[in-house]
Amino acid sequence: MSNELVRSCRITLILSCCILIFLIFLWFVTPAKSLIAGFIIGGLISFYNVFHLAYRVMLAGKLVASGSQKLVGLKTLSRIAVVGFGIVLACRFPEWIDYRSLVLALPLGIIVMIVSASFYYIKKST
């Protein structure tokens, strides 16, 4: 794995952990527990999908670089199933998990990945 990819993954992991720790702290402090629980579940699903996709792309890239004829998929159906599981969980327990905040938190992993890539390119250009 190249240095820039390792650095970007490390920054993404640190930012995602900081966001989740902050959300868990808010869950303990605020009375809007279902709203914050939706953000926590949505963030966990989002970060799982981002890191799973990064791993699968890295695996496929290694196989292509080695010249292997073996096909490796990106497991899109499993990532969609995880999102579906989160939505079913929110619909099953609406008093514990707010579905609106869960849906709002789903693009959080992509946003964190874009921010971490921006950090790399800003540092590279200066």
Automatic annotation (TrEMBL):
The chain crosses the membrane at residues 12-29, 35-55, 76-97, 103-122. Pfam families: ATP-synt_I. It is found in: Cell membrane. Keywords: Cell membrane, Membrane, Transmembrane, Transmembrane helix. InterPro entries: ATP_synth_I, ATP_synth_I_Bacilli. It is a multi-pass membrane protein. This is ATP synthase subunit I. It comes from Scopulibacillus cellulosilyticus.
